[in-house]
What we know:
Strands 2-3-4-13-5-8-9 form a 7-stranded mixed sheet, with helices on both faces. A hairpin with a 6-residue loop joins strand 6 and strand 7 (about 155). By secondary structure, the chain is α+β, with helices and mostly antiparallel strands. It has helices at about 10-20, 25-40, 50-60, 90-105, 125-130, 185-190, 215-220, 230-245, 250-255, 275-290, 310-320, 325-335; strands at about 5, 70-75, 80-85, 110-115, 135-140, 145-150, 155, 160-165, 175, 200-205, 210, 220, 260-270, 320-325. Helix content is about 45%, strand content about 20%. It is built from 12 helices and 14 strands. The protein starts with a strand and ends with a helix.
Amino acid sequence: MSEIRVSSKKMKSVLESLFQKHSFTKEQAFTLAKIHTESTLDGVNSHGVNRVPVFIDYVKKGLIKTDAIATKTASMGSIERWDGNLGSGILNALTCTDQAIKLAKTYGLGLVALKNTNHWMRGGTYGWRAAEQGCISILFTNTIPNMPAWGGKENRIGNNPLVIAIPRPNGHVVLDMALSQFSFGKMQSLELKNEELPFHGGWDNNNELTKHPKDIMDSGRALPVGYWKGSALSMILDMLATLLSAGNSTYKIGLKKNETALSQVFMCIDPSTFSDTEIQQNLLNEIIKFTHEGPYMKKDGRTFYPGERTLATRKKSKVEGMQVSSKIWEEILELVD
């Protein structure tokens, strides 16, 4: 697969025009373009620029309502329920993240549960956003059934992404992980490059574990991270998102033809509620230092805290431009025209 370099300025401009063309307001188009570009800038093309054609397809099919906004349906102190009304997953998630932050600043902890929303693209976006506002965050979403429960043959659980972020002056700690060994977006990116996965990522149609992304995407059966442990965690997150939002479970989402009307949870904690901020940072740095200074498996190896490599990729991309699949970029330009 050939790749080209695209500047963030160019990508934002092109995407903003594309989103306005498909009935988003100028303000909404600016936000959507910004988020997709920032994900790509951080090296997460799978949930940034690569997802744009799919997003536009969902808009065209009416699965994403361009005129819909999230609305609050219930509240009790620091806990709220919202309905996404099938609007943009990014715009809904930004609204609910900001609301959870607002509640955390008021009560110390804020939780917003959202139903009837669409794919939030890169979940880490909202973890970084909360960290920039000084909040710890725990965020998760359910998905269509795209993994077998451990020991099962058919897809009955989702790769339900989990995000945990902790603010830190010297670089925020942000965990962003799907509960499949590799996200389907990551597998798509590797397939575009004609590359294999470094480890087994799922089953092929012969029920054999494989490193070939295309075989896994053809079967639709990803491998849970941690095998039975990831399977159990997927079910628990689905249960929590469904119960707290009173929304759709992975089972209900799977009854639809497309992945839509998802359930999500946005929980934020304001650590400044306690008056020991300096102690908190010292403890956090102590953990990172201890991990960094350990012996490595390889002579030139090293270890990283969650989010550390993202910061390095972001810095490099700002200088050199973003590497983008020429095929995806051409498809986007055609959609604009």
